[in-house]
Amino acid sequence: SKRTMAVTKASKDQKYDRQLRLWGDHGQEELENAHVCLINSTASGTEILKNLVLPGIGAFTIVDGHKVSGQDVGNNFFLSNNSIGRNRAQAATELLQELNTDVSGNFVEEVCVFNYEHTCLRLGSVLWNANIPFLVCRTYGLVGYMRLVVKEHTVIESHPDNALEDLRLDQPFAELKNHIQSYDLEGMGKKNHSHTPWIIIVAKYLEKWFSEHNFQFPKNYKEKEAFKQLIRQGILKSEKGTPEDEENFEEAIKNVNTALNPTKISSGVDDIFNGEQCNDITSQTPAFWVMTRAVREFVHNDGGGNLPVRGSIPDMIADSEKFITLQNIYREKAMQDASVVSKHVESLLQSVGKVCETLFCKNAAFLRVVRCRSLVEEYSVETVNKDAITSCMDSADGEMVLYLMLRSVDRFYQQHSRYPGVYNYQVEEDISKLKLCVNSLLQEYSLNVNVKDDYIHEFCRYGASEPHTVASFLGGSAAQEAIKIITRQFVPFNNTFIYNAMSQTTATFQL
Amino acid sequence: MLSHPINWLPAESKACMNLLLFSLFREKKRRRVVELTEKMVVDGGSRDGGEWDGRWNHINTFLERPGPFTHPDFEPSTESLQFLLDTCKILVIGAGGLGCELLKDLALSGFRHIHVVDMDTIDVSNLNRQFLFRLKDVGRPKADIAADFINGRIPGCNVVPHFKKIQDFDESFYRQFHIIVCGLDSIIARRWMNGMLLSLLVYEDGVLDPSSIIPLIDGGTEGFKGNARVIFPGMTACIDCTLELYPPQINFPMCTIASMPRLPEHCVEYVRMLLWPKEKPFGDGVGLDADDPEHIQWVYQKSQERAAEFSITGVTYRLTQGVVKRIIPAVASTNAVIAAACATEVFKIASSAYIPLNNYMVFNDVDGLYTYTFEAERKENCSSCSQVPQDLHFSPSAKLQEVLDYLTENASLQMKSPAITATLEGKNKTLYLQTVTSIEQRTRPNLSKSLKELGLLDGQELAVADVTTPQTLLFKLSFTS
Questions:
Q1: What interface predicted TM-score (ipTM) does this complex get?
Q2: Which of A150, B356, B367, B476 places its Cα 20 to 30 Å from the Cα of A335?
Q3: How far apart are the first and last CA of chain B?
Q4: Separation in Å, CA of B316 to nearest CA in chain A
Q5: What is the spatial distance between Cα B259 and Cα B281, in angstroms, rounded to a whole number?
Q6: Whole-angstrom distance, CA of residue B194 vs CA of residue B295
């Protein structure tokens, strides 16, 4: 019933409040419509799922044909000792399901032979062709590994930290210009003078500067300092001649450097505009590219080379009326620009589905596209990223050597049908065998690098163990990447992530 | 500190320090094994842990096998596991987002003697990440429910809950633990804990007795950001050495709130701080309860009215609640990552298996995954751990209020409501104390008196107490001309 739905929504709003403040109701909706498949409910796997079930993913399915072992229960929070001998997928599903009744948990009893390389390459191809994002995760001793495989992932809401404001002080649009004109700083009373927004102050003094400097902007450090001085001279003085306390002027001076940044489109966004997908718009084109094309049209035809105005300004010392009026100038221009973009969308296509033009325009400066190389490209001798591997191996104790070791233990598995050093007696004798695998790997890919013996010894020592804390670190990391893919908010990594729990360091490589 | 070029110890000393620390840590372990074994005999023997084959395989590789990256002092042994299982005692502070994760991580890493302290009860909004709690547990103490869940899920694990504030315990409680790990959401509480462990340090002839050191692992998260750090009190940077890493909370200026609102947040603060005390909507003396939906609803409506007055848009119920409760967004994933890093460090230190994190890691997964690991340096004149008496430079004509302002506003001190006492004419005199109303009223006139008027002399010691530290801090008054 409607009332039940309202009550449910209210209680979900309460439960998910802390995360709704990060990705909003629309992000939550995407999450609740998503279905995730986990292959192998190892500790890493169940930890990933835990961090997806808790925030309310729509559904999960675990595929695992293994029977629960005593060892499994030892490092896995979602297996209990009375499930030893039962199917692992089923046992884990029960305890994961119990975390959140909003989520639908399923399992399939199917064995995946764990030859990482072989399985991942085959599965990877299937998923690549089906355009289903694939995230490979593993915990191996004190090393965590993630590989994201997605052909193309577009992000409108990247939520950048420390984004620059879009104030247009270098090229004020007509309404902003008029508004600035309406101020007469010299003729104002003290109260108004001290509560004029710094944006107006900078704009006014910029006009002064232009008239004295042949219409050139302050260019270098020296000129910017002189410009700040010019503003400082504008601070009202008391009868005794001492400067009054005008915080808004101090704000103006503090913000000069960023305020004078020229309005321009970042190279990242430019690259996106020049993407192939932007050119041939059909009814099959994803909404993101239709919108991007529409904004590109705007930039060339209406925006004078600039993106639609973002419409937001930072808070600043000012009285309410001056601030709100200024804020509305920017907001209304943003809305105007967005509706022009709308018209371009219409002329390209009839509709773009759910993507809202205002949201897109507001985020136009921060669009991101992530394209990962396929696993075939990573593993194939012809296309392996030799440069990245070789240059990263310059720091012999960085994370790249751990990547090479993971590749090597997979070779070991292919040859011996087991991982090195699983049993105590194997540790010593496997070192030389693993070293052969390392050398054959380096040879096959013509990698002229040196892998220290210490790492070969360490990886034998690990015995393919999966300590819970490392699995949990990886579980948190992987779950958030999955959430990024599902909600299309925030930016996923590209494409290989390594966690070294010995040094508590991480690295990301594009392989 | 971070950009401080002065290293606290030369490199060689640091290496020695690490080795010294670990040799003596193991010595401390041995002592405790003796203590606790005796105790166990009296109590009637060890519990049946419900062991099964292979249970600890994933951990044993790190305890029983030698390796090239282990701590120089590490000795592989089949007994190390027994130490973790039977003897090692860990204290977890906080049973919330980080705490739940920490308890799970520690329990699955072989730790069985775990105490957890948390003064809070469970709220619905906790359920998106504090996975040891269910809807039926709302209102119950976090520590109790968390302990029950872990003890039920992990056979043999004995988590002992304490539904208390950390300040309810004294040294005798904290001294019993090998390692303390914090998952707090309050800087004040962190600083208090830091001060407590510093107060346990024993110095003999100016030399620190390493067996009096209890390592502190501290984790913090906020949205998609987090950090994990390892502190050896008395040896490495403490919380107060790096206080500048925690910027003070931003409060809006009063004039903005009272007469020039611009943002929806300003409207909510107006209602909370000015309108509520004036209108007393739920009766005389009824304070705003941020957890009462009716109270929030009232604030929300009044905030909307205020906003309408100034043509401000954007006041929503969610925003109102966020401002009133100072809500920090939170998700399961960040807490999982940071707690896991902390628990890994607990394991490394308890087992001596690897050299621990030296000493601070930050994490941010807004754009890809980013971590930065560095060594936070000790502050030479840290107000908490340097044992260097802090100077206060003031003119004798300065008012006591100025001293108070300095104690609260200085970035390295950031005290909350300091109480200042001094010895005058042989007697201990309270100059100002805020936390007890009668004393506050009595001593308030002192704030507008000058230091000279109050009878304070150059070189005088002032004792300052505050919530940020369990011990009184001593300052030396140094008059400027």
A1: 0.95
A2: B367
A3: 30
A4: 12
A5: 22
A6: 36
- Entry pTM: 0.91
Report, as an integer, the average pLDDT of B353-362: 95
Between CA A355 and CA A349 the distance in angstroms is 13
Q: Which residues pair with B432 in a beta bridge?
A: B420
Residue written as token pair 């002092």: B73
**CA–CA separation, B285 and A397 (whole Å):** 64
Measured distance CA(A5)–CA(A14) in Å, rounded:
14
3-class secondary structure, B204: strand
CB contact under 8 A, A497 and B365: no
Q: How far away is chain A from the Cα of B422, in angstroms, using its nearest Cα? A: 37
By DSSP bridging, strand B89-93 and strand B179-183 are: parallel
Q: How far is CA B368 from CA A495, B129, B363, in A?
A: 9, 22, 11
Active site residue B16: no
| Residue B452 DSSP class | T
Residue B9 confidence class, pLDDT cut points 50, 70, 90: very low
The 8-class DSSP code of residue B146 comes to H
Which residues in chain B (182-221) have CB-CB distances under 8 A to chain A? Answer: none
Residue A501: closest CA among A458, A463, A460, A447: A458
Confidence at residue A114, expressed as pLDDT on a 0 to 100 scale: 63
Where are any strands of DSSP class E within A176-236?
none
Model confidence band, residue B3 (pLDDT cutoffs 50, 70, 90) = very low
Q: Do A51 and B336 touch (CB under 8 A)?
A: yes
Which residues, 6 or more positions from A319, have their beta carbon under 8 angstroms from its beta carbon? A191, A192, A195, B260
Summarize the confidence of residues A95-106 as an average pLDDT.
97
Window B:221-240, CB contacts with A under 8 Å: 223-224, 228
Using only C-alpha atoms, chain A has a radius of gyration, in whole angstroms, of 29
* 3-class SS of residue B463: strand
Give residue-wise pLDDT tens across range B121-156. 999 999 999 999 999 999 999 999 999 999 999 999
Q: Which residue of B has its CA nearest to A195?
A: B260
In whole angstroms, what is the distance from residue B367 CA to residue A158 CA?
Answer: 8
- State whether residue B318 sits within 8 Å of chain A by CB: yes
Residue burial A374-409, b: 16+ Cβ < 10 Å; e: rest:
bbeebbeeeebbeeebeebbeeeebbbbbbbbbbbb
Cα distance from N-terminal residue to C-terminal residue, chain A: 51
Task: List, as one string, the DSSP characters of B65-105.
Answer: S--TTB-TT----SSHHHIIIII-EEEEE--SHHHHHHHHH
Query: pLDDT tens-digit profile of A412-463?
Result: 999 999 999 999 999 999 999 999 999 999 999 999 999 999 999 999 999 9
Answer whether B121's CB lies under 8 Å from B142's CB. yes
Two structure tokens written together for B323: 């401002």
* Number of residues in chain B: 481
Positions of E strands within B156-224: 158-162, 179-183, 203-204, 207-208, 216-222
Non-local (6+) Cβ contacts of B52 within 8 A are A70, A73, A81, A84
Which pLDDT does position A424 carry in this prediction?
A: 92
**pLDDT, tens digit, 9 for 90 and up, residues A470-492:** 999 999 999 999 999 999 999 99
How far apart CA A403 and CA A384 sit, in angstroms, is 13
Poorest-pLDDT segment among A95-99, A176-180, B2-6: B2-6
